[in-house]
Every structure is written in C-alpha cells, then in structure tokens.
C-alpha cells in the first residue's frame, strides 16, 4: 500500500470505478463478515470472559483479554487473508484481462496451462472450498434466526423442522436476489443492511453504558496494537492449558477465513475494477477492521458490563448457548422487543446477501465467467447450498460445519501462498513495463522552425482545427509510414474514426499484442487565468481542443499539436522501437499475449 506499486490500477490506466465508494465498501463488508458479525458480537466476548482458561485473572483483566482476542480474531488478520486473495484476482482479471477465476492468479507461474487441467483443478477446489465456507456461515445464521424467533415466541422451539422452513424461505429470497444480479439485488441489500447495522450500533451505544464503551474501545484499540506481534506469532506452545482454547478459537477462525476467502476474494475482485492497489488495500484492511472493533466493543463490552453490574453473572451462564445470547442481552436494554426484531431482520438480510453473492460467485467459477448463464443453474446452486447446510446441521450441528471448514482450509492456504508469489512477480514486471523509457538514440527537437512552434504554443485550437490537423499532417505522416513499413515487409494499416475524430496506424500480430499508435481529438477545460489575464495567450473559449496520442497498451498519451509531419513519423518509430524491445524480453509475455489485443475506445 505504501510502495511504488500502490498507484497501479486494477484495470487499464484510464479505467474508472464501477460503484460508488459507499456501495463498494458496503458490498465487500456484507460479503466478508455478514452473519458471523451478528452471531459472535456478544457470544465471543462473553465466552472468552467466562472461559476457565482466564479464571486466574481478575474480572477486569478477563474483560480486557476478551476484548483483545475478539479484536484479534476479527481484525486485520482476517481481512489480510481476504485482501490477499481479492487483490490477486482483481489484478489479474482487470489488469491482464484474464478470466475472473482462481486459476488466473497462477498465470505468472503456469502461463497458458491455466486454461487446461491445472486450471480446472484449481477452480474445482476453489468451488468446493467456497461452497463449504458459505455453508458454515449460513449455518450460523439459521440457528441464530431460529433462536431469535423462539425468543420472540414466533415459533415454539428452534428445532430442525423450523430450521428447514427458515432455510427454504431465505434461500428462495437469495436465489431471487442472485437472479436479479449484483447491480440490483446485492448492491441494494448491502446498502440497506449497512445502514441498518449502523443505526442498531448507535442505538445500543446510546442506551448502554456510553462513557464506559467509548473509554473501553479506546483502551482496547491501544491494547490490540501493543500486542499485535505477540498475537500474530503466538502459538501457545509453552502454555498447554490454553492449547485447547487456541485450537477451538484461533485456529478455527483462521480455517474459516481461509475457506471463506475464495468466495470473498472473487466477489470483492468483481466489484473493485478501477480502484488503485493503494485504495483497495486501505479500504479492505482498515475500514472493515475499524468497524468490527467498534461493533464488538459496543456489543461485547456492553454485555460484560451488564453481566458484572446488573445481571449478576446471568449472561456468563448463557455463554454455552451462543445462539440465544444476543437476544438475552437485549432483555437488559430498553425496547428489547424492537431490538430483537431488528437483529433478526439484519441477520436475514445478511443471510440473503451472503447466499446470493455466494451463488453468483460459484456460478461464475462453474461457468468460467460466462456473461450469460441459464437461470435454472443459479437456482440449482441455491438448492445445493440449502441442502448441504441442512444435512450438516442435522448430522452434527455447527460442529459438523466447523469440521468441514477445517478440512478445506489447509490445502487452500497453500494456494494463497502461491498467489503471493504470483502477485509479487507480476507487479515487478508491471512497473518495469510502464516505466520503460524510449531508446537512448532518440533525438529531441533540435530547435528548427522555432518561430512557427512558438506561434503554435500561443494559439489555442477549436475542434475543427484539430480535425484538420488529424486529416492532413497526421494522415500524411501515417501514409508515408505505412508505405515504408510495407517496403520492409511489414503490413500496416491505417484506421480512421469519427466522433471524435481519430486516426491510428496498426500493425497486426498473431501471437503478440498488436502495435497501435493513434491520435484523437481531445478537449480540456481552460483555466480562468487564461481567460482573464492580459499577458497570457488570447483565448475566448472555455474548452481547448488538441490532438492527443494513444497506444494499444493503454499507456497515457500526450499532446502532439506541435509536431510536424516528420516529428510525428519519428515519434511513431520511437514507440515501435520500444515495442520491439519489450516483446523481445520473455518476462513481458503476460503483457504482450494475443489475449490482450483489443481496440482502443
């Protein structure tokens, strides 16, 4: 994020983000956390607080440790895993124009083999990992919704029968949302959910021990940063009494994040085109982490404060029943029934957004990101998700879901490490490619015809003048170049377009990317200083037109209005010489592949 690679865009150099910043953050947050945030916000701090492992500590230290380890499990470490997978996929998909698929992250290592059996094997495994990761999260949502409905006396018990009904209803909604697409279903639901979560957070902060919560959050944040490296590298190998706790919490969380990362990574890569690497990492690492800390502090610390000051240990005794703990916690706040309804609604929306975006991602993996896939196929993915979640809940409850997560996480962790190798390798090539300068033999303008050039500098052009330049000077230069290329056995063609006027010389290749040098009619707004200052070139229009060069690999062009015919010819030759030097280097084959051929728009 702080390196020279931070400015690289996830896409062409001139690409723009597809979604607003709020919608983008809302979708990646809803996909990355969702139901788990609701399920564990009270349950995890209370379970750490009441765990016998921390019995030797005072209540204050137990509360601090509970907050610290909750921050640890839901903070930067989790989002670093998501960010690593998401950044790799977004980079290779949008920058190299490879398919948005797990196999694309291996392109620097496997090259064209990603289109064969190796690529298929990677995608199949990613599909299985995604499937089980989503199923685990949906399982948490089902049991918590059932417990909440039982608390509100809407259903008599949270039995498996009622879990089946809940799954059928919510998966049906998820399928409907997935069929409507990311732009409609997922985006709208994510925005609604984030707004609802923020309102719920503010309400609990206002009605709970507000001053205590603000102070404990600040102290907890400092405690987290002070212990960051100890938490990161701590394995509890010298503390045998804490090893079971470490396996049941930290290791399970890492497995959960890793198994969830193909889905989250693919989804946030899909919605992140046009963002810079710096913007992507900052948003993915910092914003969700900070919100998670605030959320866990408000709910977890409120529950511990109530347990110690009001409930006389009643919430601690419910730590073994995490499904109902959130709803029991609200009984000690005003408007408890309203809160319970709101929580259930938020979990339902989180369930739908997680399931529909999961269905969307799995369908993309299975179809190799086909632009159009039959709707019955999307329905089938939803039915399979619901069926597996119910089978695992019936077979062994959440324990079965967690076991499945552990099984899929270890192999995929190796894939994540290979993603890191591929990304580092590709970024180094990317930077070298775009920073490569012209040959040292390039001769700058000698100063001839300086009077004519000065006149051009102080003259501002309208659109018609620039069109004339393109149709005369540029066209003549390209015609002479075309003839000379053909005389040397190289076929070149000249393409012309209208609205805006542009012309380009193109050399087609079957194996490597086409060479394109073009000039187009561009416009830029004129500074107010030029319109009002007397001792500056005279101009009356608020928009100045100029001929701008462009290239086949989306590098930034520049103003060529001062170029003569021969200087334009020289400029094209400079770029062609650079092109030949680049394709001669084997390490640049990711940029010069025929797959990158496309027409400049």
Task: Give a structural overview.
It is a single chain. This protein is mainly alpha-helical and 601 residues long. It has two domains: 4-432, Amino acid/polyamine transporter I (Up-down Bundle), CATH 1.20.1740.10; 450-596, no CATH class. Helices cover 67% and strands 5% of the residues. The protein contains 21 helices and four strands. It has helices at 21-32, 35-50, 59-74, 76-95, 107-110, 117-151, 160-180, 182-207, 210-226, 228-233, 243-270, 277-309, 314-317, 322-330, 336-366, 375-435, 450-457, 463-487, 528-532, 565-583, 589-592; strands at residues 493-497, 502-507, 515-525, 543-551. Strands 1-2-3-4 form a four-stranded antiparallel sheet. β2 (502-507) and β3 form a beta hairpin. The two termini are 30 Å apart. The relative contact order is 0.14.
């Amino acid at each position: 994020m702080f390196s020279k690679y931070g400015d690289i865009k996830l896409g062409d150099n001139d690409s723009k983000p597809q979604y607003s910043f709020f919608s983008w953050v809302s979708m990646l947050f809803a996909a990355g956390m969702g139901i788990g945030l609701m399920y564990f916000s009270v349950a995890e701090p209370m379970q750490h607080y009441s765990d016998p492992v921390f019995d030797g500590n005072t209540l204050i230290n137990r509360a601090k440790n509970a907050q610290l380890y909750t921050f640890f499990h839901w903070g930067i470490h989790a989002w670093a895993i998501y960010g690593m997978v998401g950044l790799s996929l977004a980079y290779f998909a949008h920058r190299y124009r490879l398919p948005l698929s797990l196999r694309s992250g291996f392109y620097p290592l496997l090259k064209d083999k990603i289109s064969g059996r190796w690529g298929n094997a990677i995608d199949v495994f990613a599909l299985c990992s995604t499937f089980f990761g989503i199923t685990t999260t949906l399982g948490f949502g089902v049991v918590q919704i059932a417990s909440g409905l039982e608390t509100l006396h809407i259903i008599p018990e949270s039995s498996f029968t009622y879990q089946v009904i809940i799954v059928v209803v919510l998966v049906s909604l998820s399928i409907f949302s997935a069929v409507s697409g990311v732009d409609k279903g997922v985006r709208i639901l994510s925005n609604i959910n984030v707004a609802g979560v923020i309102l719920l957070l503010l309400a609990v902060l206002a009605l709970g021990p507000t001053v205590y919560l603000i102070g404990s959050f600040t102290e907890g944040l400092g405690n987290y940063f002070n212990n960051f490296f100890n938490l990161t590298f701590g394995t509890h190998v010298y503390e045998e009494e804490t090893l079971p706790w470490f396996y049941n919490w930290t290791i399970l969380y890492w497995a959960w994040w890793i198994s969830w990362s193909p889905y989250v990574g693919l989804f946030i890569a899909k919605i992140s085109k046009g963002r810079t690497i710096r913007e992507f990492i900052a948003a993915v690492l910092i914003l969700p982490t900070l919100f998670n800390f605030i959320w866990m502090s408000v709910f977890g610390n409120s529950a511990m404060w109530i347990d110690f000051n009001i409930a006389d240990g009643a919430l601690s005794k419910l730590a073994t029943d995490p499904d109902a703990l959130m709803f029991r916690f609200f009984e000690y706040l005003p408007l408890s029934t309203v809160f319970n309804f709101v929580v259930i609604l938020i979990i339902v929306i989180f369930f739908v957004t997680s399931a529909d975006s999961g269905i969307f991602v799995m369908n993309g993996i299975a179809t190799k990101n086909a632009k159009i896939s039959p709707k019955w196929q999307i329905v089938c993915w939803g039915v399979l998700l619901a069926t597996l979640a119910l089978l695992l809940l019936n077979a062994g409850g959440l324990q079965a879901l967690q076991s499945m997560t552990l099984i899929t996480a270890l192999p995929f962790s190796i894939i994540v490490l290979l993603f890191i190798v591929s990304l580092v390798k590709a970024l180094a090539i990317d930077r070298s490619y775009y920073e490569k300068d012209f040959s040292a033999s390039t001769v700058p303008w000698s100063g001839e015809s300086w009077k004519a050039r000065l006149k051009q500098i102080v003259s501002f052009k309208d659109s018609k003048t620039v069109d004339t330049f393109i149709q005369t000077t540029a066209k003549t230069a390209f015609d002479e170049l075309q003839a000379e290329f053909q005389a040397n056995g190289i076929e070149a063609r000249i393409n012309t377009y209208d609205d805006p006027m542009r012309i380009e010389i193109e050399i087609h290749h079957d194996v490597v990317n086409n060479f394109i040098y073009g000039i187009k009619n561009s416009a830029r707004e004129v500074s107010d200083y030029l319109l009002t200052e007397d001792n500056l070139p005279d101009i009356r229009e608020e928009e100045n037109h100029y001929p701008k060069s462009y290239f086949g690999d989306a590098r930034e062009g520049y103003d060529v209005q001062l170029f003569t015919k021969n200087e334009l010819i020289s400029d094209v030759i400079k770029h062609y010489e650079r092109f030949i030097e680049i394709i001669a280097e084997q390490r640049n084959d990711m940029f010069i592949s025929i797959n990158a051929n496309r027409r400049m728009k």
